[in-house]
Amino acid sequence: xxxxxxxxxxxxxxxxxxxxxxxxxxxxxxxxxxxxxxxxxxxxxxxxxxxxxxxxxxxxxxxxxxxxxxxxxxxxxxxxxxxxxxxxxxxxxxxxxxxxxxxxxxxxxxxxxxxxxxxxxxxxxxxxxxxxxxxxxxxxxxxxxxxxxxxxxxxxxxxxxxxxxxxxxxxxxxxxxxxxxxxxxxxxxxxxxxxxxxxxxxxxxxxx
Length: 208
What we know:
With 208 residues, the chain is α/β, with parallel strands linked by helices. The chain has helices at 41-48, 70-75, 92-102, 109-118, 134-142, 164-179, and strands at residues 2-12, 15-26, 29-34, 56-61, 64-65, 77-80, 152-156, 183-187, 199-203.
């Protein structure tokens, strides 16, 4: 199982963000995506998810273009962007049930409650999300990591708005996912404690 990027080029308007970008991610590996502000990190992540159209190049999943087998790819992908994608009038359980159904999944309320508890939200299961702090909302969104079985995680600044304890917890969740044979690509200012052989550092500043 692998994600392969071949000669990718992306632009914003007339500005080329990066070009000739190629890399491969295998099971049990993580890519830490780096680059200065405006270098195209979010654009690259969205391109890998098929949400942004590249000028040139190809993204392959299991050896096939994600354009040819989108259903297979999206079943095996979990993407978390800057936005939490939560409905403010729903409580955490309702939000996670809705989000699971949107990607064709089904999850029990018990599993959701266990995920929320692990993310430090025990006792908040029935609280409307609009009444929560930014950190709590982020924890609700990140609880999705614990209730999906996707092998590929693409995470854009997942540690934003988290306190020290939540950062350490999320680091451990990502490490466990990778060590269990999963794959992850993320942008972050927080280190993820993985052995060097399991982690690649990719700087977009080299591909301008």
